[in-house]
Amino acid sequence: MSRRDQRFRRGMKARCCDCECILSHWYYERGGQLYCKKHYWSRFGEHCHGCKETVSTGLVMVAGEQKYHPECFTCMSCEMVIGDGDTYMLVECSRLYW
Fold first, then answer.
1. Fewer CB near the last or first residue (10 Å), C or N of the chain?
2. Distance in angstroms (rounded) separating the CA atoms of residues 51 and 61
């Protein structure tokens, strides 16, 4: 049993190193630091190239090395959503065109 698990058993309250919220028995750890779910994913998770928000679950569209929420996978010219199976062109590794 780790020291952190022992702390929880003794009733000590661990806190997220970003927001200082009290963590339950479910937490994320990286580099010896403890995080709540929100701050772990915002710091270490994948980010949508369109809206810059965290992409943590659900459907993900991929173009080159960029990841997008489906609603953010849009043409740079006409702003139409590019659906699964639609033809698109990726210019300069980051700009999408339908």
1. N
2. 13
